[in-house]
Amino acid sequence: MKRLITVLIFCIITLFTYTQTQDTFNVPECSHAKFFSYFLKNSKDIIQTPLLNDYDVKFYFLDLNVENNTIYISGKVTFYAEVVAATMDTFAFELLDEMTIDQVEVNALNEPFSQVSDEVFVPLSNAFVSGEIITCKITYHGTPPTGGFFSGVSTGTGWDKNVTWTLAEPFAARDWWPTKQVLQDKADSVWIFLTTSDENMAGSNGVLTNVTPMPDNKLRYEWKSNYPIDYYLISFAVSEYQDYQIYAHPAEMGNDSLLIQNFIYDSPGCLENYQDGIDQTAEFIELYSDLFSLYPFHEEKYGHCLTPLGGGMEHQTMTTLGGFSFGLVAHELGHMWFGDNVTCATWSDIWVNEGFATYTDYLANEFILGQAAADAKMNSIHNSVMSQPGGSVYVPPAEVTYDNIWRIFDGRLSYNKGAAILHMIRFELQNDEMFFQVLKNYQEQFADSTATGLDFMNVLNGTSGQDFTQFFNQWYFGEGYPTYSIVWSQNQTGTYMEVSQSVSEPSITPLFEMLMAYKFSFNDGTDTTVCLNQTANLNSFALPVTKEITSLQVDPDNWVLNHVGSITVGLDTDESINSFTFLPNPANNKLNLSFSSNNQLTRSIKILDLNGKVRIFHTSDLNRFALDISGLSAGSYILQIEEANATFSKKFIKQD
Question: pTM of the entire structure?
């Protein structure tokens, strides 16, 4: 999912005002009544009845009546499921209390039901045992609540056309159809039949197998998909559309082609306005198929339904979006691999959806628009992440609640920091072929299923032969980012660097142990880049670089999420050793400085902390004097002396 608009707080509040809870639950025919009474309390936490885990969904059949100018829905939804509990005497599913259930049939028998706190419980006339197949058909109707980005069903206008569309992520499938909102239980297949007025077209998942005339000048659009699909990726959009079709030709498909089916408003100028953006979808599919694996749903299609949605939603094989900008189309298509084929196993692990899709947008910039565009994209990502000091990419389970959806879809953390993590993994590997092999192995291992962030880490470790456990502790579960400050010097034998790393959230992540690149530019116009491992907050390095250095740049290609504090040039050579001395080291309240030169030079004396911040500044023309450092807290500091055209730097320790 990609959001291009800012939604005000009142929209979020409105979105959740429909939730109803009851403190008592008394259904005599249901043996689980006491259990429900305990769990269905007034809570914003996500509490689902465990009865949802008594069966495994095999197939959903949605047969609905929809129109382009209302969110009213009526029809039937059929579950085909296999019992996995030892015994199942109650069939449970989810549907908002505001929706009216007319009838529930289980294996062709009408059954009583109770609708409580957006969950429905159907006591069964005959209990089922593990391995048996159950068919539950629910006839229902109603107008679900609306308001906010995450409404289950919305209606609006675009290009003078009315349009109704759905967006079920993360918890809104139950707004408009009876469902089971459990990520780990993908249905093996789905049919979505949509009956609407004959001036409309209705788009959905899978392949449009037929358009059947119905009574009262209606048409039924019959969509079928044979790929596993998660509940929130099932969708529809209905409007006065036109069908604009193009084709992609991924190399792995040989002479075959992949349909890209686009439902665009049937308004003058609409197709012409969006055509270039739509047509570029084919190039994206071909690129991603090369980088990650063949488009996962190549036996069906990819497509778009145009709506007034402020962004996009990656409904499987048929993205719903509000326009066709480069980044939006690239991002939502990337979800077909990362989010649809492989889906997050928990909403805490939304990174494997949104962080990855954001990085697919970066890769489209890199491979299609060029490195300059990719650099600008990554710079924007880094600026976003570092606009605040903290925040974890992993969403703690306690923060995954019905009233905290925007934490799950935090643009700075789930999207941008998530993409930055992948970019840093690519840098840590120092091997692009290996990086993309990791993505391919991940797609292969978890195809048609769900995964966590740690599942991806295990694929990364196994493929690369490296251990990224500490990396994930720092970047995925940890918070913040590092700042690098450097004091470097050079003599005839080599170059010397003291690299200090401070962090934005020291109480949570005190150190980022990782690779960092340093670019040396020389006086002859050449340059070289070296990569060094930061293993402590202060590391010293000796490098066999004797060519005269004119400048030093940290992370020249912007691989790592970081700030640069100070880069200080010192002359830590025999000359500097003889230029001045100071005692004691470690020091308490005073540093006694002594300069070898007898010239009456005015010198600048600075004390810098390891972030490069000047803590003491003093000028003097005395060759011997005591510098008061009593105001400094205990720690390591840099003493920097500037005289004439030379700068000398040495490190010391301040004690209490």
Answer: 0.85
